[in-house]
Write a structure and sequence with these properties.
- The chain is α/β, with parallel strands linked by helices.
- The chain is 45% helix and 15% strand.
- It contains 21 helices and 15 strands.
- Helix 3 packs across helix 11 and helix 17 crosses helix 19.
- The longest helix has 20 residues.
- The radius of gyration is 21 Å and the shape is globular.
- It starts with a strand and ends with a helix.
Length: 498
């Protein structure tokens, strides 16, 4: 069963939590109790395909889904048609201590595909289980990657319309074209003159607007979300932490029970939270290292106990992390404070009203037990890309480079020799201009558009351009709408014909 982080909603089954997306009265759904696996049970998953691990882990959280239903969803999602690598999330060994977990082999070249290829099947099942006759409108705020992954996952799914809001001028040209060229009878992409937080806050306000939801219901619609505020988006991400550990075991890089670190480039805190849940379930996690770019609100929070979004918003070369309000932190704080709904309400109210809150000493000490945090400056990010390419022959995207740099700082400060897995969250080709600049210098980009840069990066690295990014420039742009930040609700009304 699933409960609200704010103690303001009745317990619901997994399918209902996925159908609703977020708690209607505000707050996020979390499992009332967490399942656990013994080391013996984890070892039993060795030498088995990704799909088997996915069924095993997700079935522990989806009690009102039949095993056959879960298996069907998983096999449809993690197929050769959708993922270019048969391991789904392969590991690349940089040296004896450091591995990159490649999460970008799906159709849109970003880690969001891992969840957003399977989530539409779960949601469709959840709607059927609830006997929903209305059409579902999925609202998504994106800082770049979630948008295309969600559009691709949900396009042409009967009974669903998906509307994605992204910051105008705040995503890469490739990311924007991935979204605006998406076909499908039920897909909508809207650029917003504002930043990601403006998009996310507006979507959250719509979900919390009971009067508006009544109007939608009268017109035959109900709302749901494909952002990581939806448990159905977060759960599939838990799987690849187990798969990474199993992969290290299979390669004899670690011994059973050996604790390892995970480094996670982090914006909305969903990916790293999935790693925390894996650890709570029994995966031998030593430290989770939270890596921020110059929008270092999370790094500051874990170092001071004060969350303060009252700061300059910076546009960086790692735009999917350009976030000042990290939604999934609410889930983490609820868990780490022993389901302290009262504290969550106080902190989230303070964040909404003043833009900041401070956790108590006990909560801060609990966080420090498992989380380390740091940030990388823009020039450090680019130098990390150049260093890894020149010394290891491996190409990082900008977000993964942030993770690499923060890990290097952590290692220097702590001397922690535990084996470490860095989440590689996007294909380097998604951010080709920044990656090429890092390797060859800014002057090298002169007179090259983003698509010429893609080809040049492929030539230099000897790696083919990711299939999801090929020929984007020749595809017709199908979505042209740009709106102000205060017009997002009006756009929903217009698209749904309200």
């Amino acid at each position: 069963m699933y409960i609200s982080t704010r103690g303001n909603f009745e317990e619901v089954a997994a399918s209902e939590a996925i159908r609703l997306g977020m708690v209607p009265a505000g707050g996020l759904f979390v499992p009332a109790e967490l399942p656990s696996l013994s080391m013996e049970e984890i070892l039993e998953m060795q030498e088995k395909p990704y799909q088997d691990t996915a069924c095993r882990i997700m079935s522990l959280f989806l009690h009102d889904f039949l095993p056959g239903e879960i298996k069907e969803c998983v096999e449809k999602a993690y197929s050769e048609r959708n993922f270019a690598h048969n391991s789904i999330t392969p590991l690349f060994r940089l040296d004896s201590n450091m591995h990159f977990l490649e999460l970008w082999h799906g159709p849109t070249a970003a880690f969001k595909d891992i969840a957003l290829q399977v989530m539409p099947y779960f949601l469709s099942l959840a709607l059927r289980k609830a006997g929903v006759k209305r059409e579902t409108a999925i609202l998504v705020a994106t800082s770049g990657d979630t948008g295309k992954a969600a559009l691709e996952g949900f396009k042409n799914v009967p009974g669903i319309k998906i509307i994605v809001f992204y910051p105008h001028g705040g995503v890469s040209r490739v990311q924007e074209l991935q979204m605006t060229t998406t076909d499908g009878f039920n897909t909508y992409a809207v650029a917003v003159r504002g930043n990601f937080d403006d998009c996310q806050n507006s979507v959250k306000e719509i979900f919390a607007d009971e009067e508006f939801k009544k109007i939608l219901a009268g017109k035959g619609y109900e709302l749901s979300s494909a952002n990581s505020i939806n448990w159905g988006r977060l759960l599939p991400q838990v799987v690849y932490y187990f798969r990474a550990y199993l992969n290290l075991l299979e390669k004899k890089d670690i011994l059973p029970g050996e604790r390892i670190n995970f480094v996670v480039p982090t914006g909305n805190f969903g990916n790293i939270l999935a790693g925390w849940y894996a650890g709570r379930m029994g995966l031998p996690v030593n430290k989770l290292i939270c890596a921020s770019n110059e929008n270092k609100v999370l790094a500051d929070f874990f170092q001071t106990g004060i969350y303060d979004r009252n700061r300059e918003f910076k546009q960086t070369s790692s735009p999917s992390m350009d976030i000042l309000v990290s939604s999934n932190l609410e889930r983490f704080l609820f868990e780490i404070s022993n389901h302290g709904a009262g504290k969550i309400n106080r902190w989230m109210t303070a964040l909404k009203e003043t833009g900041r809150f401070e956790v108590d000493t006990g909560t801060r000490q609990a966080m420090e037990q498992i989380i380390a945090a740091g940030f990388a400056l823009e020039e450090e990010t680019l130098s990390a890309i150049r260093e890894v390419f020149e010394t290891g022959g491996y190409l990082l995207d900008t977000h993964t480079a942030v993770g690499f740099k923060v890990y290097r700082k952590y290692l220097s400060a702590t001397g922690d020799g535990a084996k470490t897995v860095i989440c590689a969250t996007a294909s380097p080709f998604k951010f080709s201009s920044s990656v090429l600049q890092a390797i060859k210098g800014k002057d090298y980009l002169e007179d090259k558009d983003e698509f010429a840069v893609l080809q040049e990066l492929s030539r230099l690295s000897g790696i083919p351009v990711h299939s999801g990014l090929r020929n984007l420039e020749s595809k017709p742009v199908l979505h042209h709408t740009v709106c102000e930040r205060n017009e997002i609700k009006a756009q929903v009304e217009k698209i749904l014909g309200i």
